[in-house]
Amino acid sequence: MHSHLHMDLQMVVLFIFVTINLCHITLADYVLDAHDSSSPCPIYLTVSPISHNVENSHLEVNWGPKCANPAEWIALYLDDPSMSYAAPLFSIDLNNKTTGHVKTNVKLGDIELPYGWNRLAAAISKPDHIPKSACLPFYIASFNGKSMQTLDCLKIQPNWMKSLPEIQKVPLKSLLLPGTHCSGCYDRRTKASRSILLKKFGFVQNFDIWTQLVFGVRYLDISIGYKDSKNETNPSANLWIVNENLFVAPLIPFLEEIHLFVTLSKEIVILNFVDFPIGFFNYPERHLILLRTLAAELGDVIYTRPWDNSANSGDLTIEMMDRTGKSLLILYNDKSVVEDSQLIWPSWKKFSTVNLQNNELSDYIRKIFSKKFENSTKYEPWVIYGIQGVGTSYSPGIHLPSSRERANAINKVFTDSISNAWASNANAIAFDFFMSCNIIDLAISTNMQKHINNTNYLILDIDE
């Protein structure tokens, strides 16, 4: 009997019920469900924000949250343990703990981004397209006895949007977009960076803009001040990134990094100008200086807004933007300025944890993300800032917590809190020191799951 079976153009309808969890894509490219007793426990690496600089940042081992069957132990390696017999740099017994975060004694050091994605190399020669991800030399594996359960690594994901055909036609307001708050607020190792106030409160990111984008960040946030130096020949040089009423760094180098990345990667990036706290009040002409600077530095990659206000930026899709060859969407938090320029779009609806204590986070997150409040954000794009303010974090009798300490206190609490189905309701989420939580992998896996949830059948073409 002929054993060759062929089901041509026949549909097998499979209803799929998926629970969204804080999970990650392993090196084998499948999604792990922390609450599924048949799945290995998700594990991942993060970078501690508690350090003097990024090279001295310690790696952190994480598992969960709320694993049904945690492994017996987890180890950290410099080489892929599935391909070598190298001894681990660090290991920990889980002792049946279903959720955990442990700071290791291993420092990040001076990393080299693989496949030509180092900033200087990319400026000379176009880097490789990476279909999924590429590992840095830090691997994490979980074991029961000597049997490996799960494998992951610290990785770059510069092309993750382009590598997910499922999301190309999904509106931006329906995607989970990983972001950073005060994206340009990092230590550039200049003389100005020696300020104690900047180090303690002004800097809120470990990595420069280029590296943030290469790791996978797609939503950038920035506040602008005007530093009046009486430079009339080049007023763009007076535009500075600011944070906590401190001048942090000039704007133009920040824009140059964004331009290079979107030009090489063709990934969609959203840049939100959220505030103008210094030097703009009663000086409307300075907004014009900023717009002219954006046009000069980014004009060839900006997706412009129609004059008739017929479009909503949240309804745009990756595919729509790709067709124009324009990868950058600029949001601007001043309606009067937006009305006079096609370069910019209205800012998205904003939520923030900045004024909340840690013990208030769960209730607030439940309110924002739960389905009964879904209609409030269903038809418009929105962003939530998982950050903690200086005043909110202060308690009498202790020192005023630095930006690093505040991020360390809130980031994992926030991401663990949205690790269930609430993540599927999220749009953009922005953090300080974003690599201290698993926001990139959470975004990628959630966007994949959203597509699966919206597809109630699979078409199988069986040929065997």
Description of the structure:
This protein is an alpha/beta fold and 464 residues long. The chain has 2 domains: 114 residues; 289 residues, TIM Barrel. The chain contains 12 helices and 17 strands. The strands form 3 sheets. Strands 8, 9, 10, 11, 12, 13, 14, 15, 16 and 17 form a 10-stranded mixed beta sheet that branches. The chain has a 4-stranded antiparallel beta sheet with strand order 4-3-6-7, with no helix packed on it. Strand 10 and strand 11 form a beta hairpin. Helix 4 runs parallel beside helix 5. The N terminus and C terminus are likely disordered.
CATH topology of the largest domain: TIM Barrel
First-last Cα distance: 14 Å
Q: Please write the string of helix (H) and strand (E) elements.
A: EEEEEHEEEHHEEEHEHHEHEEHHEHHEH
Tell me the number of helical segments per DSSP (H or I, 4 or more residues long): 12
CATH H level, superfamily name of the largest domain: Phosphatidylinositol (PI) phosphodiesterase
Shape: globular
Overall average pLDDT: 86
Describe the largest sheet.
10 strands, mixed
What is the radius of gyration?
A: 23 Å
Q: What is the C-level CATH assignment of the largest domain?
A: Alpha Beta
Q: What's the number of extended β-strand segments? A: 17
- Helix amount: 10-25%
Structural class: alpha/beta
Low-confidence stretches: 1-33, 456-464
Number of domains in the coordinates? 2
Question: What CATH architecture of the largest domain do you see?
Answer: Alpha-Beta Barrel
Strand coverage percent: 15-25%
